[in-house]
Design a protein that fits this description.
- The structure is a single chain.
- The protein is an alpha/beta fold.
- The protein folds into two domains: 347 residues, Glycosidases (TIM Barrel, Alpha-Beta Barrel); 97 residues, Sandwich (Immunoglobulin-like).
- It is built from 13 helices and 24 strands.
- The strands form seven sheets. The chain has an eight-stranded parallel barrel. Strands 17-18-19-24-21-22 form a six-stranded antiparallel β-sheet, sandwiched between helices.
- A hairpin with a 2-residue loop joins strand 18 and strand 19.
- Helix 4 runs parallel beside helix 5 and helix 7 crosses helix 9.
């Protein structure tokens, strides 16, 4: 049976943090941080209850920070090169080390990481971690790399803007000027190196990824002479070896950051090389350009982000800006690549669906998630806290009140703290939070059904006054069907679902067959007859979801 992959992603630094100070721009001492050890067997069982097959632990790698760990032999970072107090997990400072914030005993952070891997596997879950291939922290230096491994940039010719053997791009004879200068001793970088978001200027702006340096994969951005991949660039070898290192430590797969900024040729070389040693390694690409999907799948990726397709459509539908009848065309626009699309409705880059900037409604967010989850056998990404209706409306510091859960600041989440205090039950949740969590867990019971994990999709077109905001489809195999009806309208809506002759031809189910229908969100049993002669009729309350499992009687 095909497995439906469900990835639960969590910012490791926030999970398990019991501090309640929540001081904007607060330090580690003031606001605290969660630890790897907080992913206890109890916590992992909870994650499993949401249908998860994988956990993506965000921010495991050591990254630039304003917290001083020099007493542990870790070089301090200049404050001007760090966003927030905690720093971005995507400004990696040492590809071979674990972030010290995450360890109960900083000296034992590598051992604690190994214990996390073992504990996760023992819970029946697989481990994903970030691979950030495009850029590193400006203060990058590995003090944990294996013996004989040469540091990035250690032998670069800094007088050359571009060289295939360099790890970085340089701006010869120009000093770097950062957009923020908070210290009496400004950060010095001479010659300046190109910034992570392809900014080849010594004056990156506040909107650039100014805290990072772009890695050189042999693409001559400076002289316009294209890709230099023969001989294999030094950066390729170093980054492939980093992937192998973590796979060798027990990591099951990698969520690859900003994949499109790294040439497909690297992936086509590196992924098979990793899989030659670790055949089951999963590769998920963060990607936003549909016209490039094919080349990255051919390069070896298992799955790709679906942001500009299903995600954007569901958000627009929930805001009343799209017609539900367009969903099937949007879903199927990628053709045969649909099975490789990783759907999500929240992640660390996007605004929370329950925030004031999107739906202001966790219930509507659940509806969008249910549609994404049930409309294909392809993977689904869940972001921690969305199952509790987390809003992301705190003013944490660098992140600000932007509808996102900060990745830059030391912080804690009240909803998570109450969940953990109640031993991952609804004991300390509000009635609304408890109902939402229960619905996410009920939804999860559908994922293992072969009809959902591998059945065919057939889009339906509701009729009636509220049809523009009612989305309906069927998933089917020869064993039965799922009928999903979702009302995105904030009002009670009556619709009918006509079933055409094409529906029966395509699904292979016979006209006039009677079905026992279990509504999976309530376990209420009904009986339905599917026929082109009479449409199915539904009265749907605001933001209602109906998930019927149909079995012929």
């Amino acid at each position: 049976m095909q497995e439906k992959i469900i990835i639960y992603s969590a910012l490791t630094r926030l999970w398990g943090n019991k501090q309640t100070t929540r001081k904007p721009h607060g330090s580690l001492v003031e606001n605290g941080a969660g630890k790897m050890g907080d992913f206890t067997p109890e916590a992992l069982a909870y994650i499993r209850s949401l249908g998860a097959t994988h956990v993506w632990y965000i921010g495991l790698l050591e990254h630039a920070t304003k917290t001083d760990y020099s007493s542990y032999g870790i070089r301090p970072d200049h404050p001007d090169t760090v966003k927030g107090q905690a720093g971005s997990p995507y400004a990696v400072k040492d590809y071979y080390d674990i972030d010290p914030d995450l360890a109960a005993d900083t000296h034992e952070r590598q051992r604690e990481f190994d214990a996390l891997i073992e504990r996760t596997h023992r819970a029946g879950l697989r481990v994903l971690m970030d691979f950030i291939p495009n850029h590193v922290a400006r203060t990058y230096h590995s003090d944990a790399c294996p013996t004989g491994v040469e540091d990035l940039g250690a032998t670069d010719d800094v007088q050359r803007a571009f060289s295939p053997s360099n790890n970085f791009y340089y701006l010869p004879d120009q000093a770097l000027t950062l957009p923020l200068s908070t210290e009496s001793s400004p950060y010095r970088e001479y010659p300046a190196r190109a910034t992570g978001n392809d900014c080849f200027s010594p004056y990156p702006s506040i909107n650039d990824w100014y805290e990072t340096v772009k890695l050189n994969y042999g693409v001559d951005y400076c002289g316009g002479s294209g890709l230099h991949a023969d001989p294999i660039p030094d950066t390729w070898v170093k980054m492939r070896d980093i992937l192998c290192y973590w796979a060798g430590r027990g990591v099951d797969g990698f969520r690859c950051d900003m994949t499109e900024l790294v040439p497909p040729a690297f992936w086509a070389w590196a992924i098979p090389s990793v899989r030659a040693r670790y055949p089951e390694t999963l590769f998920l690409a963060e990607i936003y350009q549909p016209h490039r999907y094919g080349e990255y799948l051919r390069a070896g990726f298992d799955y790709l982000y679906d942001k500009v397709g299903v995600y954007d459509f569901l958000v627009a539908l929930g805001k009343g800006e799209r017609n539900a009848a367009d969903f099937t065309a949007v879903r199927d626009a990628v053709g045969a690549d649909q099975a490789a699309m990783c759907y999500f409705t929240e992640n660390h880059d996007e605004q929370r669906l329950a925030s004031d900037f999107v739906f202001s409604s966790a219930r509507q967010g659940f509806l969008a998630t249910a549609v994404a989850a049930l409309s294909g056998g392809n993977p689904l990404l869940l972001y921690f806290g969305q199952e509790l209706g987390e809003q992301g409306m705190d003013t944490e510091g660098f992140s600000g009140r932007d509808g996102r859960t900060t990745i830059f600041d030391y912080w804690s989440l009240d909803k998570l703290q109450r969940l953990e205090a109640g031993h991952y039950t609804t004991a300390q949740l509000t009635a609304e939070e408890a109902r939402l969590l229960s619905d996410y867990q009920r939804l999860a019971t559908c994922y293992i059904d072969p009809i959902i994990s591998s059945g065919a999709y057939y889009g339906l077109r509701p009729e009636g006054e509220g049809k523009a905001q009612v989305l309906a489809f069927v998933r089917s195999t020869s064993e039965g069907l799922y009928l999903i009806v979702a009302n995105f309208a904030p009002t009670t809506t009556e619709v009918s679902l006509p079933l055409s002759a094409d529906f029966f031809t395509t699904t292979g189910h016979k006209e006039g067959t009677a079905y026992r229908a279990i509504e999976r969100m309530t376990e209420v049993v009904d009986f339905l007859c599917l026929t082109p002669l009479a449409p199915l009729r539904f009265t749907l309350t605001p933001h209602a979801l109906k998930v019927y499992r149909l079995t012929a009687v």
